[in-house]
């Protein structure tokens, strides 16, 4: 059983595409101090993900996340785990420990890639909309092959990473060419949490 951790964001989707086929997406519900843009747009994320693979939504208890993930992966019989980490060493070590705990092989196909090059490759296969950002100017922008250079320039001008790897922005994939999926969401409402803007689509 090959499972991919899935948030609806561009990196999780592109990592799965690089390791396709996958048998299941796992969408985890965390209890964060600040609301997650992905959780606040969960219905859309599940709808999009379901066009590619079955999506399992799983609630985690705060303080027991690692144990519960391991228990879930064992129950599913997961022997390959796909994740979309790029260069946050702490995340990679966590995933390696989790895979080791359940006896699975970890696949991190985006690890170590140049951020601009990775963004350029991602938009060859998908489009996304910015659903959360520390810079409101980026919120609700739809990014694809035709305008990703403009988006990257805007991010750099604002002093943030073009990939958003450090949480400067969060994305929701809206189009995946491999599966003929193309959705056109609109931002219905924007909410603010401690200077971080989240769009509801």
TrEMBL record:
SUPFAM superfamilies (UniProt xref): Adenine nucleotide alpha hydrolases-like
Residues spanning the signal sequence: none
Family annotation (Pfam families): Diphthami_syn_2
Domain Diphthamide synthase as annotated: residue spans: 3-177
Protein name as annotated: ATPase
Organism: Pyrobaculum aerophilum
Lineage: Archaea, Thermoproteota, Thermoprotei, Thermoproteales, Thermoproteaceae
């Amino acid at each position: 059983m090959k499972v991919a951790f899935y948030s609806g964001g561009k990196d999780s989707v592109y990592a799965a595409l690089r390791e396709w086929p996958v048998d299941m997406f796992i969408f985890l519900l965390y209890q964060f101090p600040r609301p997650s843009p992905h959780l606040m747009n969960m219905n859309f994320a599940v709808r999009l993900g379901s066009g590619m693979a079955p999506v399992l939504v799983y609630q985690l208890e705060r303080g027991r996340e690692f144990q519960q993930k391991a228990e879930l992966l064992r129950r599913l019989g997961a022997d390959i785990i796909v994740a979309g980490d790029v260069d946050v060493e702490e995340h990679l070590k966590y995933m390696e420990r989790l895979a080791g705990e359940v006896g699975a092989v970890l696949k991190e196909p985006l690890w170590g890639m140049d951020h601009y090059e990775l963004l350029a490759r991602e938009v060859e296969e998908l489009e996304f909309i910015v659903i959360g950002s520390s810079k409101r100017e980026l919120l609700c922008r739809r990014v694809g092959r035709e305008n990703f250079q403009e988006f990257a320039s805007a991010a750099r001008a604002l002093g943030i990473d073009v990939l958003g790897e450090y949480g400067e922005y969060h994305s929701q994939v809206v189009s995946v060419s491999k599966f003929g999926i193309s959705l056109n969401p609109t931002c219905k409402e924007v909410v603010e949490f401690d200077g971080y803007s989240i769009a509801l689509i």
